[in-house]
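REQUEST FORM: STRUCTURE PREDICTION
Request ID: SP-0412
Submitted by: Lab K.M.
Chain count: 1
Length (residues): 174
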Amino acid sequence: MNADYAAWAQDNDVAEIDWSKVLVTVKSTSEKPVSITGIDFLVSERKPAIKGVTLGLGCGSETTARFAVVDLDQNPPQITESTSKEMMWGDENWRTSPLRFPYTVSDKETESLLLIAKTDACECRWKARLRWSNGETAGVSVIDYKGKPFHTSGSAGLQDSYIYNDTAKQWDKL
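STATUS: Completed
RESULT:
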């Protein structure tokens, strides 16, 4: 997601529609390896899906990573699809096998996780918690947007959709 758009969306309380994709790169802050031992998702606010219009910026770039699709409509949210192999989400073979923790990272070896939060029925504000251990201590790192939860809503109550036309510098109705 473009950083300018992400900041604008947060400042204007914009919800992503149907799903949000968050790419997380995990690494150790020292030479000592760290094991990622698990991930879970928390919905801090759940309301009926929003009503109104949608605005879109078009598609982003391809992302290759291990990924987890989480269903925010379930309480608690549940991972419904994932892959233990790094691959492009949406590839015809992307459903290889479930995530299998632990994954080990260091200051030089990183791990990329693509988190895909889906909802049909709710307007949800959510965060993820990444559990880790370095053999001496264990902890949790919260994944959010600069201290604020991510904001995703189902599209059931939406009417018109618009996409930004970069060439014409205008919003076009779909």
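NOTES: Residues 21 and 116 are 5 Å apart (CA to CA).
Reviewed by: T.R.
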